[in-house]
Amino acid sequence: MKALFGSLLLAAACTAGDYSEDVDISTAVTKQPRYVAIRGAASARGLRNAYLLAGIANDETGLAQCWSEATWACQGPSSPDCGGGPVIAGAADGPCSAHQGGLGMFQFDAGTYADTLQRYGTAVLTVDGQIASAIDYAVWMVQVSVYTTNAETPAKARAWIDNFDPGNAALRDQWISTVVRYYNGCQPSWSCWGPRYRTYSDGYNAAIAEPGGLGFWRDAGTRCDGSPATVGQIDVKYRALGGCGSFLGRPTTDELAAPDGVGRYSVFEHGSIYWSPSSGAFEVHGAIRDAWAALGWEAGLLGYPLSDELATPDGFGRYNVFQGGSVYWSPRTGAHEVHGAIRDKWAELGWEAGALGYPTSNEIAVSGGRRSDFEHGAITWSAATGATTVTYQ
Predict the structure, then answer these.
(1) Which residues of 124-144 are buried (b: 16+ CB within 10 A; e: fewer)?
(2) Distance of CA 267 to the CA centre of its chain
């Protein structure tokens, strides 16, 4: 991307920022979660037809945010959404050592990396921040574009995007022309116009087709009397639990990117719903959520939830299953995690219905291994042998 709010870097537009002509831009990114993120972030901010944004990112980086997803590019500043590694950075603005070029999925570019962060803020180092800035930029360029009509204010420009009809060839031409001129910085009389019009058109078409057609982008989400919206798979789960009338209550945040850069979550009055591509969407609430939070949320040893909170077979306690273990709660023991070989042994002995009962501690370090305490004993794991030992009390 070469265009900036209020000014265009026209002299550079035909020689920079277009990887498709000279560079193999194949990426290792799994695109569906990025489409979900773009749809969710746009819906949470009240913007429809987010495939328009996704089409731009398709052409710029193939939806890659992290350098690890596109190692042909330069390495930008570190990002929490890239596990602390670098974001993808422009590879067509000179040597990587110059630290000059676009940053992230939408390739925001104000000159050097430092210039870009000063103009757009460090949020552009995250997926959610990239999308938020892309929304603002799309509204601006539709407003100032010579190709659009009845879009001369920010409100009218948003309405233009919201009312965009993909079946209208004239509107498609207006959008692609706007993107090529105001996002990429290429002028109609320049030799770059035709090739870039085609590549942005390809990105637009892919953004509709790849995630499952226009139906994917029409998921409007759920709001509860003006609350933030739930969208995507988190919205599907929320509605399955009863939506606004469920035990979770109203949403209190927009859908947010998890700090690990993989998943998404929404917070409600009485709990949360977390989603990741590998786990799906599940709710966590109450004392179990508190215990999970104390262990580091999804970035901790337990990872993402794999179940909603469930009643134990004895009818006395509650539990959630996570990628790396479980958290069990009962009124007399509180909430504690169990994982690994100790959890396997406890399961073999009958879970909470067995002789040991409910866990009364998280797994702790002891001499020579690890131990979890239970109501009626303990299970100890040996680091030397990998064996578990059960003691009763």
Answers:
(1) bbbbbbbbbbbbebbbbbbbb
(2) 15
| Residue of 154, 177, 155, 174 whose CA lies nearest to 164 | 174
pLDDT digits (tens, 9 = 90+) for 369-388: 999 999 999 999 999 999 99
- What residues contact residue 254 under an 8 Å CB cut-off, 6+ apart? 41, 44, 45, 228, 229, 266
Category of 214 on φ-ψ map: left (φ > 0), alpha (ψ -120 to 50) or beta: alpha
pLDDT bucket at 219, cuts 50 / 70 / 90: low
Q: What's the start-to-end Cα distance of the chain, in Å?
A: 67
Q: Are strands 74-78 and 7-8 parallel, antiparallel or unpaired?
A: unpaired
Residue 381 and residue 342 in contact, taking contact as beta carbons nearer than 8 Å:
yes
pLDDT at 82: 94
- Report the distance separating Cα 150 and Cα 336, nearest Å: 59
On whether residue 309 sits in a domain, the answer given is no
Q: Is the pLDDT of residue 21 over 70?
A: no
Per residue in 357-367, pLDDT (tens digit) is 999 999 999 99
- CA separation for the pair 144, 83 (Å, rounded): 37
Q: Strand 377-382 and strand 388-392: pairing?
A: antiparallel
Percent of the chain clearing pLDDT 70 (strictly above): 91
Check whether 3 has a pLDDT greater than 60: no
When divided into structural domains, the chain yields a total of 1
Give the C-alpha separation, 228 to 324, whole Å.
31
CA distance 274 to 292: 12
pLDDT of 36 reads 85
* DSSP letter (8 states) at residue 359: B
Cβ neighbours of 40 (radius 10 Å) = 29
Q: How far apart are CA 198 and CA 369, in angstroms?
A: 61
DSSP lists the bridge partners of residue 330 as: 334
CB atoms within 10 A of CB 14: 19
Enclosing domain of residue 132:
3-217
In a domain, 270, yes or no: no
Mutual orientation of helices 31-44 and 127-144 as an angle, nearest 10°?
60
Instruction: Please check whether residue 187 lies inside any domain of the structure.
Output: yes
d(CA 76, CA 92): 13
Note whether residue 242 is domain-resident. Answer: no
